[in-house]
């Protein structure tokens, strides 16, 4: 063997021996990896669009930790920088996560050997890798290979169960409001005879459940509950305590202004003057919602959401609860477009040609003239900004060459709507071109016609001349 080959082999051997030691030292900082739902549980399955966390256990041994790269099964949605704290709660450095590379980097500032802790990194599935439901095996740098069952189901349900705190008897008539992370009320629940109520088809995430009403004799809890929806069904048991002291109730009715039309889905918030008590409720299909078990005192009621057709009121209402009989509060919302409109289209009755220049007058229920409009080049007369109500439409001037219609058209205007009316006109009949009267015997002259008299006189002379000639002929 050549002399130069032995040193080279020895060098390769040293590199081969050192490399595993170096890798071991770099990954020794991270000791264990786990994948959990957002609430920390590991119940299978996981959803394709679910927000999860990767839990990393670590122990510091004075060596500089290597960068921990998350498997490409997962995706970090944004860059993260957070404190690195021990299990005792002491901050010893920072931890950063690079969204582009899925890289986790720990930097220590003041740490002693042997300290340990756990850090949670929010992740979701990489849609390029997790393309459909199924089982996925994920290998981590810490040595674990975790099999995840993934389903396409993107929604779950929340069920609340109302129970007597002492007897555990199920209670009917408890009312709850469910609010999502964006602050939107997604459901209003009332427990049935079995003490249960549920809302299905909710996207995974964090929800706030607030009790707004309780059965007679029970108090309404002040504090809401946070519910992490991360599986097909999450059940929340609500314990009801007997009411102590005097309580009252508030009934809210939301309607369109000046009507009895209910507003569905109007959201209200009731607070104490101190702000320590706060409840959000949403109106049902009748535009109604109730809060019970309210301690005597003064509250501030504010409408926080309304239907898109209405203007959200800027006012707040002071509510005083001082009796057991429910307080009735009616809230009116004004339409975004509180007026209606009317368009009249006029055409020729025989040719359907649009007619310009017809004047139409619109009268209200008191027969008072509201407006006059003339049809344009397109044969259209438009009446705008009309209050809701009943009107009468009349044609008060016809286009040239047409007969004015004497018909009156009843029109009902609704707020935010445009009523379209199509009308027709007929041409005026042509005047007679002859002033004579024709009979079966011919045409007779009318009295006072000078030309006719001359013709008659000429005829008499002609007849006389003829008679004279006839007499002379006989004599000859």
Write the layout of secondary structure elements.
Layout: H1 5-27, E1 30-37, E2 46-47, E3 51-59, E4 68-69, E5 74-75, E6 80-85, E7 91-98, E8 103-108, E9 116-125, E10 134-139, E11 145-151, E12 155-164, E13 175-179, E14 185-190, E15 196-203, E16 205-213, E17 225-229, E18 233-240, E19 247-256, E20 267-272, E21 278-282, E22 288-295, E23 297-305, E24 310-311, E25 316-321, E26 327-335, E27 340-348, E28 359-363, E29 369-374, E30 380-386, E31 389-397, E32 408-413, E33 418-425, E34 438-439, E35 442-443, H2 450-475
Parallel strand pairs: 2-11, 12-18, 19-26, 27-33
Antiparallel strand pairs: 1-3, 3-9, 4-8, 5-9, 6-7, 7-8, 10-11, 12-15, 13-14, 13-16, 16-17, 19-22, 20-21, 20-23, 23-25, 24-26, 27-30, 28-29, 28-31, 31-32, 34-35
Q: Describe it for me?
A:
The protein is mostly beta strands and 476 residues long. The chain is built from two helices and 35 strands. The protein has helices at residues 5-27, 450-475; strands spanning 30-37, 46-47, 51-59, 68-69, 74-75, 80-85, 91-98, 103-108, 116-125, 134-139, 145-151, 155-164, 175-179, 185-190, 196-203, 205-213, 225-229, 233-240, 247-256, 267-272, 278-282, 288-295, 297-305, 310-311, 316-321, 327-335, 340-348, 359-363, 369-374, 380-386, 389-397, 408-413, 418-425, 438-439, 442-443. The chain has a four-stranded antiparallel sheet, with no helix packed on it. The protein is elongated and about 110 Å long. The N and C termini lie far apart (183 Å).
